[in-house]
Amino acid sequence: HGELKSVGEMYEEEEEEEEEENQQQGSKKSSGFGVFNMFKGLVGQKTVTAEAMAPVLDKMRDHLIGKNVAADIAEQLCTSVATKLEGKVLGTFSGVTSTIRQAIRDSLVQILTPKRRIDILRDVLEAKSQHRPYTITFCGVNGVGKSTNLAKICFWLVENGFRVVIAACDTFRAGAVEQLRTHARRMAALHPPENHNGVKMVQLYEKGYGKDAAGIAMEAINFAREQRIDVVLVDTAGRMQDNEPLMRALSKLIKVNQPELVLFVGEALVGNDSVDQLTKFNQALADFSSMENPRLIDGILLTKFDTIDDKVGAAISMTYTTGQPVVFVGTGQTYTDLKALNVQAVVNALLK
Q1: For residue 146, what are the contacts with CB-CB under 8 A and spacing of at least 6?
Q2: Cα dihedral across residues 97, 98, 102, 105: positive or negative
Q3: Sign of the CA dihedral with 42 first, then 44, 48, and 50 last
Q4: Strands (DSSP E) found in 229-323
Q5: What is the mean pLDDT of residues 107-129?
Q6: What backbone phi and psi angles, to 5 degrees, belong to 69?
Q7: DSSP label of 285
Q8: From CA 184, how far away is CA 204, in angstroms rounded?
Q9: Does the structure show a pLDDT above 80 at 10?
């Protein structure tokens, strides 16, 4: 209960269809294997040399960039495959295909598999046992879907029986507070107090516009502590990664309130820019916090994942840049369109 379905059912169905076609056509379609055609040239040589691999890896790199992987990251992936394969003795055709497919797959899986697993439900329960609220802060550039995905996470937590207060710390954009109020009202209608022993499951904490966001977040956390509310979700204003005053303000909010989880919300649609956004957000949090061990971004929420077909490269680019895992994936516009990332499915889509 409470486990999110993983993104990936959609890719796996497509793959099965393709395989069936391949089997039906059998001998006619010996040129299959998509990306891996380019490696046919390597057969017949006993050992693989760097020169022989160069044109092949160039094609591979372009394929990955076409799938929206950031250019320098695609470059590094190909280099790592080259080092693995150089000097290897190869036999039949299947040997080449499998060797290269495996090398690339291994690298991709390694990048996407999180170093530490973020288990929010477990952490919320732990915080609850210590009588303190669990705080999640959402940050990101403008228009990526912070408030919408905050609402989805809120809904998921409420479905798991936790009480949530939403802190409206976007005191900048007109309509931001109203947007959250609408979400809170909707969720209150879906989970009315009478279903939960008269307890309000979702509340909005807001102080209007033009105020100091860090102060509002702090008040919201104190409010949650007094009311014994389990989770505080802090919505922040969208800001471009090179806007220094706004980045300072975000850094202050995180430094003052020390949230348990800082989620960076990014779009699956952007390729190279996502890397720039993430690095600069992390850099700003490190530079402006003036602490010994500054709080950085803990995880990534990838939105608009339903709009990109199989161009899932942004997931690779983002995790590769910071080493932080993709915690959630937003796949649509309703409250249930929140999924966990299926590593195998993403890798299959990249190599398709």
Answers
A1: 138, 139, 140, 170, 235, 236, 238, 265
A2: positive
A3: negative
A4: 231-236, 261-267, 299-303
A5: 89
A6: -80, 140
A7: H
A8: 6
A9: no
